[in-house]
């Protein structure tokens, strides 16, 4: 056998030339690789099986349908570990007995099972044509995957169900090239990922660039659907694929198909669960009290002010820091002296001000957030039926506990699904689908965006958390409001009803009649309670005097009716036609109202009817009320013609004629066409000799034009008048008067925003589709976006109207590669890699006549970051003075000294400034980066062997620059101290690495050591060092192990004894680790330009385990 292995190369060459086939070459490489990497034990076992004649042996040969030998096919004796593989001529020998069941498998061929007989056991394997005949869900129907001419990506529902995450959208992140899903809003339980297809879609005022999400053909919510119900997801990315949906889908479609009942005549019951434990990742922490106090004093003295913390208080802070915690608000020194976090006033009545006298040592992030959160999810489903009637019923419960330690936040979701299908007669079938979702979210009333901007600035470590009596104390500081300031509870019910009839009175002529109805109802109760500090005697003292109850009601009634018919016709078995035409109409009616009344009478019963309408002082407060009733309608006629010649030359034409109530009657209707072509090059006669290694090669071309009517203002072409109750500035009969205002100007020319898409794509498969992939290049022009008209004279007295005056172009590419194979030892493995990129350029923007760099500029890419070039931090006054002698920095700051930034004079005018901040006069500014995410990628690695399975999914962004927006809630989390002053200062640990030398207050007074090689400049309450610049431009590229999972499926010969057909146990970890160059206080997935991004609710790492059982 060893000799045989050494002679493989020469034998291969002879056979290659004899058959003029490359098939053996690639197969042989695979076999050699298997033998080279297999454990020595396995090699010995294979050698013995194939090289030694044993008493109980079965021999045979494996051939394909053309009579060619199949090399490296796996032959196994079912129920045992005995195995072998076929040799170069397809022959095999295996240790087995007559009557044993032999299972023969090979990637790209259908697996066969035979009973071993005496004599040659020759087997012919048929190619597995599932890749060729795989059906993909597209708009209003299905198509064979090989016949697709548009850009469509398909995700198997199994990939989503294996991820124990809150929503299907989170599980989709990184799987589909071009589908951009980001958690920029943070890890808060109610937040949903943002989704777009192929980059920036629109910048029109009030326009939405989100894709249309359809669940079983009806608009739905991808964030609330039960992932366990999903059979597959199709992402329609170009206009040719999505144009059939018209103006509702100008920026792509996500089609979700849910599971249905089986037709095998048996009942299948499934139950699965997961239990999850999470902890925060890349969280922030406050400095200890001593470091904070010295840092604050450094910032004040560097700015030219006196210290905030005098020497006596510094001594108290150090003593308290070094003491041992005793009781809340109390520590004990080494000599037994009790030290108090906040002293009492001289009259011993109430406590002193926390900012002026507090000496506590609190990390407010540890106070506000818990270290661990718990969640669990349970799913159960029953399906069954036959050709005449089938059903699928499922239920889901998810509890997701939040991280709030002060107060409570949690998310609960209940899902129920019932689907039935019935063959009413030979020519008519009925399907009914009902889905119900209830989502409950609860949080402290104080958990708002305001908390994220205020937490560190109102969370000075020296501020007391408790007084010495053990009561929470607010200076202000975050804890009291979170713990006792009330709760915000929201309950959302969504119910879907779908009834459809499929009629086929004549063969190949099918008519669909669909009725879809959805009710989306939300109620929200938000009570804001009075909060109390306590005096020295332990008696409550009012702190926040306001109390109110807020109630909101929101209801959408959505109706969708669609009727379409399709006909298939083949001529001479080569000319294949599919014609489809139909009509669709939609209506959405929205009702919303809210009210707020002040003066909660009983804090334990915070209901709106138990309020008195009075302030704390007894003054009447007019209740706030709001309400609206709105609706829109659309109607559309659509048609599609598909033609293919012998499934080699492909063509598709779509037409959609849409009307919407959002435009005036003369601009209400518009026609949107698309055309796409495909050429299956691999099916050409001149490609016959490549069949052994080239499975599929298809070229795709497409063009489409769509309109966008997804705008926030449903009545933008109408002048509207606002009425306001009791908002006048004078009294009439003791009451303020009602007011109204003149309507703004409206352009009579407002019309459709249009989207033109061009796409060229290449699909390919090699080695019996073990290696598959696709590449797409696209251009998308979004035209006539709504923007403000050029400025008009102020004498006009009102704002300028919006018009269709803005265009942009997005271009990019997408690549996906997949390899799936099976080794001789039964190891299945797969690798999928995807990579995509897109950029957006403004091609028309008239509202910037000066070409200001602070807004959009025609001919330039969006999201450009303009900044200064940093020369460095001056290590001494001498170095700074030498720099200032050639470069005047007085226009951007004063009192330059050691520890300050030296900016580079890029325009050589010997001074640093930003000119007029225009494209022609930008001073020393230049484009230093771009915040558009570039080169988004994902790698999915999976393997399975003898019941064990493992999966690792990596996701990331290769290129992205980031700069925080500005002061007052954002830049402070980067630099700590800015021009926003001490009351916005954020003393987190990440800003401790700041410049200090012998002259710095903390060093001169012996509290800190010098740090002249610091990352940050010296701390000052000014913006001279915090200008946007190259030194502090953040690299937001990252790689994150989004999911690592390992499972084991218990052998069926064991589980069947328990009445179980399949049982799998698993462990999984989400967000296991992150590799990034970003400062540690920021998460690259959340980074943005406001406090919600720079200090928002953190993301989490989640460990989970569970079981999946099928009966």
Number of helices: 19
Main structural class? mainly beta
> In oligomeric terms, what are we looking at?
single chain
Sheet-strand content, in percent, reads 35-45%
Average of pLDDT? 89
| Anisotropy-based shape | globular
The major sheet is characterized as: 22 strands, antiparallel, barrel
Write a brief caption for the model.
The chain is mainly beta and 1111 residues long. It is 12% helix and 42% strand. A hairpin with a 6-residue loop joins strand 5 (101-105) and strand 6.
Name some characteristics of this structure.
19 helices; 42% strand; globular; mainly beta; 1111 residues; 12% helix
Annotate the secondary structure layout.
Blueprint: H1 2-6, H2 8-19, H3 23-37, H4 40-51, E1 57-64, E2 74-77, E3 83-85, E4 91-95, E5 101-105, E6 112-115, E7 123-125, H5 130-133, E8 135-138, E9 141-144, E10 152-156, H6 157-161, H7 168-172, E11 179-182, E12 194-197, E13 212-215, E14 218-219, E15 230-236, H8 239-242, E16 253-258, E17 268-280, H9 289-303, H10 311-322, E18 324-327, E19 330-332, E20 338-340, H11 354-357, H12 364-368, E21 373-385, E22 389-401, E23 410-425, E24 428-444, H13 449-454, H14 478-484, E25 487-506, E26 509-528, E27 531-534, E28 540-544, E29 548-571, E30 575-598, E31 624-645, E32 649-660, E33 669-680, E34 694-708, E35 723-724, E36 731-732, E37 735-736, E38 739-740, E39 753-766, E40 771-788, E41 802-822, E42 828-844, E43 864-867, E44 870-873, H15 877-884, E45 901-903, E46 926-930, E47 934-945, E48 948-959, E49 961-962, H16 972-975, H17 1001-1004, E50 1034-1035, E51 1038-1049, H18 1052-1055, E52 1062-1070, E53 1074-1076, H19 1091-1094, E54 1100-1110
Parallel strand pairs: 1-7, 13-16
Antiparallel strand pairs: 1-4, 2-3, 2-5, 5-6, 8-9, 10-15, 11-12, 13-14, 15-16, 17-21, 17-54, 18-19, 19-20, 21-22, 22-23, 23-24, 24-25, 25-26, 26-29, 27-28, 29-30, 30-31, 31-32, 32-33, 33-34, 34-39, 35-38, 36-37, 39-40, 40-41, 41-42, 42-47, 43-46, 44-45, 47-48, 48-51, 49-50, 51-52, 51-53, 52-54
Helix pairs in contact: 2-3, 9-10
